[in-house]
Design goal:
CATH class of the largest domain: Alpha Beta
Largest sheet: 12 strands, antiparallel
Radius of gyration: 28 Å
Distance between the termini: 52 Å
CATH topology of the largest domain: DNA Polymerase III, Chain A, domain 2
Strand order of the largest sheet: 9-5-6-7-20-19-18-13-16-15-14-17
Number of domains: 4
Shape: globular
Length: 388
């Protein structure tokens, strides 16, 4: 094909290139007109033609001119967006022409790699900034003492203990993120993830992240609970909490906290939503935990949520606890470790609890209507299935 004739030697097409020169190309757009329509350079369109990703609707056999149909514009626009996101061409082709599930898998994989790359670059740049003269991060936040203490209590339920903490010491810490608008406290033990966002009374300084030991943070929170307001001062990895004429100091860690945002972003749309009495659900779970059961099943039936022991040989225990519930989505059956689910229910507030479930293999989001700023994720037990 005569590519130089397509654009008269450049990516800027000549005015006559917008004109259709034969009957076969009637109603089609020249490569220049189509390029302007979809936001791609003519050279890119030629490249995508050569790679068989975006073929012209018609090629003039005499001149080699390429022509495109209006119906190709959505595909071209999607291709442009995929390439702007730096998706490799072979993956872009899978998104354009592959089955739906394959396309989602490709995009999720690229999204994860992009986040990891961005996080690594951010960490490297922050380390360089800290090493520069005057590069130490500083921030100062004023917040209610009781609010801070409540947030520490809530996320503390997801901090690892015992063998898990010995194996991964970072899971015994709480991530504290400070940005221009809020403070976030984050904790995880790999089976639970708790995130609490706080709106401070005032905030100043640079965005920063800290990893604080849960015991030190809990002790400081207990002291702060009785104070109407405390000032949190950050300098590098050192934290000072002032209030009531006293000052408490905490030391941050150099460890790397798990990339929790990737977990939140990969949850998927909720197929099921269950709203039930939090106290009733908590008692049913606690009773089975006290009885030594290692798994419980939650099943929706009509207007009820049934809570029963998950039996290794098959059906649930007789005499399951039934709670009135609001359920949206297809019929549901899902199992949990009661020792993992119970702390999440304890950390919630208000009379109701909302469970948002994408599938039996993904974390379940637990929220309360009374406090949208607190979110807990709990991993289900994999030996139960969600019925579609």
């Amino acid at each position: 094909m005569n590519d130089t004739d397509d654009t008269h030697g450049t990516d800027d097409t000549h005015e006559t290139d917008d004109m259709v020169g034969n009957d076969a190309a009637e109603g089609l757009l020249s490569i220049g007109a189509f390029a302007r329509r979809v936001g791609l350079a003519p050279s890119a369109l030629r490249f995508y033609d050569d790679c068989a990703v975006l073929r012209p609707a018609h090629v003039d056999t005499a001149t080699g001119y390429r022509y495109y149909a209006e119906t190709q514009a959505p595909r071209a626009a999607l291709l442009r967006r995929l390439r702007e996101a730096e998706l490799p061409l072979v993956d872009a082709a899978a998104v354009l022409d592959g089955p739906y599930e394959e396309a989602r898998e490709v995009l999720r994989g690229h999204l994860g790699r992009t986040r990891e790359s961005a996080a690594a670059a951010r960490a490297a740049l922050e380390e360089i900034l800290r090493a520069l003269p005057g590069g130490t991060r500083r921030a100062e936040v004023s917040i209610g003492g009781a609010e801070l203490a409540g947030a520490v209590r809530q996320v503390g339920s997801a901090v690892a203990a015992g063998a898990a903490r010995e194996e991964f010491p970072v899971l015994g810490r709480v991530l504290v993120e400070i940005d221009g608008e809020e403070i976030r406290l984050v904790a995880t033990d790999r089976y639970r993830l708790a995130v609490r966002a706080l709106r401070p009374l005032s905030i100043a300084g640079e965005p920063c992240e800290l990893l604080l030991d849960i015991e030190e943070l809990t002790e400081t929170a207990a002291w702060a609970r009785r104070l109407p307001e405390v000032a949190v001062e950050v300098e590098g990895r050192q934290v000072r909490v002032r209030g009531g004429g006293e000052c408490r100091e905490l030391a941050g860690s150099d460890e790397v906290f798990p990339a929790y945002r990737m977990v939140l972003d990969d949850l998927g749309a909720a197929r099921h939503r269950v709203i039930a009495d939090r106290g009733g659900l908590r008692r049913a779970v606690a009773d089975r935990l006290d009885a030594g059961h290692q798994a419980i099943a939650l099943t929706t039936t009509g207007d009820d949520l049934l809570i029963a022991t998950e039996q290794p040989e098959g059906p649930e225990e007789p005499g399951a606890t039934a709670l009135r519930a609001i359920h949206t989505g297809p019929p549901l059956r899902i199992a949990f470790d009661p020792g993992v689910l119970l702390p999440a229910l304890d950390a919630s507030v208000g009379p109701d609890v909302l469970l948002e479930i994408a599938s039996e293999a993904r974390p379940v989001v637990i929220r309360s209507a009374d406090q949208g700023s607190f979110t807990t994720l709990v991993m289900p037990v994999r030996n139960a299935a969600t019925t579609s």
